[in-house]
Design a protein that fits this description.
Layout: H1 26-44
């Protein structure tokens, strides 16, 4: 019986730093929230370019 060498996989472990979250002014938080909502709506919209991602299934008649 032949012995096959095990594949070697490298793993990068990053140290977790104790950092305070970035504090944004409320108007910037609001702008970011609106941009996120718009991004999510556009990504979920069927039939739009880029909507739904690469796994989106569409039926064509």
């Amino acid at each position: 019986m032949k012995s096959h060498p095990k594949s070697v996989r490298s793993q990068l472990n990053l140290a977790l730093l104790d950092r305070r979250p970035t504090e944004l002014p409320s108007h910037e938080q609001h702008e970011l929230a609106l941009a996120l909502v718009e991004l999510l709506i556009n990504a979920a919209a069927p039939g739009t370019p880029g909507g739904g991602g690469p796994n989106e299934s569409e039926t064509h008649e």
